[in-house]
Design a protein that fits this description.
With 286 residues, this protein is α/β, with parallel strands linked by helices. The protein contains 11 helices and 7 strands. It is globular, with a radius of gyration of 18 Å.
């Protein structure tokens, strides 16, 4: 993370969401008209030039992965809201745009964006520059995990710890140590009421993938390391499920490249595809 702003990878992620909105065929997987502005660009030409200069490995499949992970989390959130959940916690929110895109859901949903104070301050300044009105039920939760806990941060923001909540944690775990990932999941399991759930992404070990997919993971990890944001943890789905069960998360749903392609890419006319390293889990409490 930059000392006074968002991480380079958070900006890159927003750029790829914006590229999907601009370049890919209808129907869009994710309609994120805010991503370009959040990434710091004022027009499409600036964005396309920056994308070309960034030289992201396997750019088309990367942007597919980024929009699919958000879409899957949001689809599962909509289901949870229909079942009565009214609190949504976005861990490592970065330049996420959900609360600004889905104001319809914020009629019945409180959203808590959790992020490092410096990243969050930059985002709020950018939102002000763009003239975007902050939704009434959006709560910013600046948390420096070296100094305070997630539980304390959410409590200070006014969340109801006795009511069920939905968590998303997208594109973050690989930048943390395995211990930090598992400790965060344990804290979520401890603080969240019965009926809560968490949807999160993780990266599988490169050695478990076919040669082409292994090369992509290695290239992405090298790219992240080159901007000071190395990938630190990798998990197999099986070991994560065992760990989650030990934490009391008994219902664990795996969502990988095959499921993602069937759910979101069937019938598309463009070249979007899901990279083989793509993995998500939806784990439910109680």
């Amino acid at each position: 993370m930059e000392e006074n702003g968002p991480s380079r990878t958070a900006v890159g992620t927003a750029m790829l969401r914006a590229a999907h909105y601009l370049l890919d065929a209808e129907p869009r997987i994710l309609n994120d008209s805010f991503a370009r502005g959040f990434a710091g660009f004022s027009n499409d030409e600036e964005l396309l030039k920056a994308l070309d200069e960034l030289k992201i490995p396997d750019c088309v499949r990367m942007r597919t992965a980024f929009v699919v992970r958000n879409r899957y989390a949001e689809d599962e959130l909509v289901r949870a809201v229909a079942q009565g959940v009214s609190q949504y916690v976005i861990l490592g929110a970065g330049l996420d745009s959900f609360a600004y895109r889905r104001r319809d859901l914020l009629q019945v949903l409180d959203v808590y964006e959790v992020d490092h104070p410096a990243s969050q301050a930059w985002k709020r300044q950018r939102i002000e520059e763009l003239g975007i009105k902050i939704p009434r039920r959006l709560h910013y939760v600046p948390v420096d995990f070296e100094r305070e806990t997630l539980t304390n941060g959410l409590s200070a923001a006014g969340i109801n710890l006795r009511a069920a909540m939905f968590f998303s944690w997208l594109g973050v775990t690989q930048y943390l140590t395995s211990a930090a990932v598992l400790n965060t999941l344990r804290e979520v399991a401890r603080l969240a009421a019965s009926g809560s759930e968490i949807v999160f992404t993780f990266v599988v070990p490169a050695a478990t993938l076919a040669a082409k997919e292994r090369a992509l993971v290695e290239a992405l990890a090298a790219s992240a390391a080159s901007v000071g944001e190395p990938w630190l943890s990798f998990f197999t789905p099986e070991e994560l499920e065992v760990q989650l069960n030990r934490m009391g998360l008994k219902e664990v749903i795996h969502f990988g490249p095959d499921q993602a392609a069937e759910r979101y890419l069937t019938g598309r006319s463009d070249q979007l595809g899901i990279p083989g390293y793509f993995r998500m889990i939806d784990a439910r409490i109680g």
